[in-house]
């Protein structure tokens, strides 16, 4: 793979068996993400966006083709090593925040650090700094049920960034938010990716969020195709 890439996939395909038939969801998918690059993946419902994101994040296995994350080919690693690499190099943000209900915002953000060798006081300090950075300084001890939808998504973003990953994968991060909250989350994503130098790969139905990214790709007939960005006056 290219030594410049945080993520690369070549010749990726995924099919599912449905009785005797094979359903080809993805084919010949090629992608290269450079450090700090922001890319949106759009496409109609059922076109395979989540399937692709899951394979790029090592959560699912392609039928054929290879994925390299931070220089390591995922299929060449044991399950344990793949898990460690995911924890070190990747952050995930989903449409629904997936925070643990019984833990505070601070504890939720600290969670990925439990697998790292960082001493607990440093882990807490780092999580607290990140929560302050996403605008939640006064709410770090609140549980998810005591936070608004937008605040929960801020916690999820802080959790995705706490290990200082090279890449964050986001699946419909604004899909469950009202227009105004979606816009503030969109601005936060952009601001963090610029200031931290983290690459972001975001699957979205939101044209405004897609337009904020450096590149837009769409899934058509299982293949990734570049989309021209709108030129703003
Ligand atoms: N485990 C599975 N077994 C069989 N088919 C599957 C499986 N997972 C996904 N599919 C099929 O693959 C296709 C792509 O699904 P996927 O969820 O990736 O689409 P998507 O583009 O993310 O859709 P949406 O925008 O609605 O979330 C769909 O037709 C879906 O039914």
Automatic annotation (TrEMBL):
Q: Which organism is it from?
A: Denitrificimonas caeni
Q: Give the ABC transporter domain ranges.
A: 7-231
What is its EC class?
Answer: translocase
InterPro entries named among the record's database cross-references? AAA+_ATPase, ABC_transporter-like_ATP-bd, ABC_transporter-like_CS, ABC_transpr_LolD-like, LolD_lipo_ATP-bd, MacB-like_ATP-bd, P-loop_NTPase
Question: Under which name does UniProt file this protein?
Answer: Lipoprotein-releasing system ATP-binding protein LolD
Q: Which SUPFAM superfamilies match?
A: P-loop containing nucleoside triphosphate hydrolases
> Tell me, what is an example of a GO biological process annotation in this record?
protein localization to outer membrane
> Which Enzyme Commission number(s) are on file for it?
7.6.2.-
Q: Name one Pfam family in it.
A: ABC_tran
Encoding gene (name): lolD
**UniProt keyword annotations, A-Z:** ATP-binding, Cell inner membrane, Cell membrane, Lipoprotein, Membrane, Nucleotide-binding, Translocase, Transport
Stated family: Belongs to the ABC transporter superfamily. Lipoprotein translocase (TC 3.A.1.125) family.
Subunit comment: The complex is composed of two ATP-binding proteins (LolD) and two transmembrane proteins (LolC and LolE).
Give the GO cellular component terms, alphabetically. plasma membrane
Protein topology in the membrane: Peripheral membrane protein
Explain the purpose of this protein: Part of the ABC transporter complex LolCDE involved in the translocation of mature outer membrane-directed lipoproteins, from the inner membrane to the periplasmic chaperone, LolA. Responsible for the formation of the LolA-lipoprotein complex in an ATP-dependent manner.
Q: Name one GO molecular function term.
A: ATP hydrolysis activity
Check the record and name the NCBIfam families matching this protein. LolD_lipo_ex (TIGR02211)
Q: Where in the cell is it found?
A: Cell inner membrane
> Is this entry keyworded Transmembrane?
no
Gene3D superfamilies, A to Z: P-loop containing nucleotide triphosphate hydrolases (3.40.50.300)
Report whether 4Fe-4S shows up as a keyword of the record. no
């Amino acid at each position: 793979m290219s030594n410049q890439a945080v993520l690369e996939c070549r010749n990726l395909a995924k099919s599912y068996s449905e009785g005797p038939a094979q359903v080809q969801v993805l084919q010949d998918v090629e992608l290269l993400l450079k450090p700090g690059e922001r890319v949106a993946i759009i496409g109609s419902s059922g076109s395979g966006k989540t399937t692709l994101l899951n394979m790029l994040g090592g959560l699912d296995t392609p039928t054929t083709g290879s994925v390299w994350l931070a220089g390591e080919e995922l299929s060449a690693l044991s399950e344990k090593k793949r898990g460690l690499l995911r924890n070190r190099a990747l952050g995930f943000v989903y449409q629904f925040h997936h925070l643990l209900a019984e833990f505070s915002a601070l504890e939720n953000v600290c969670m990925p650090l439990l697998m790292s060798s960082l001493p607990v006081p440093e882990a807490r300090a780092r999580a607290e700094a990140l929560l302050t950075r996403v605008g939640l300084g006064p709410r770090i001890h609140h549980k998810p049920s005591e936070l608004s939808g937008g605040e929960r998504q801020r916690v999820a973003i802080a959790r995705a960034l706490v290990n200082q990953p090279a890449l964050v994968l986001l699946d419909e991060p604004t899909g469950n938010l009202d227009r105004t909250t979606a816009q503030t989350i969109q601005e936060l994503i952009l601001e963090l990716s610029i200031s931290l130098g983290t690459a972001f790969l975001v699957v979205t139905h939101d044209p405004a969020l897609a337009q904020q990214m450096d590149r837009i790709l769409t899934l058509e007939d299982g293949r990734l195709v570049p989309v021209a960005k709108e030129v703003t006056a």
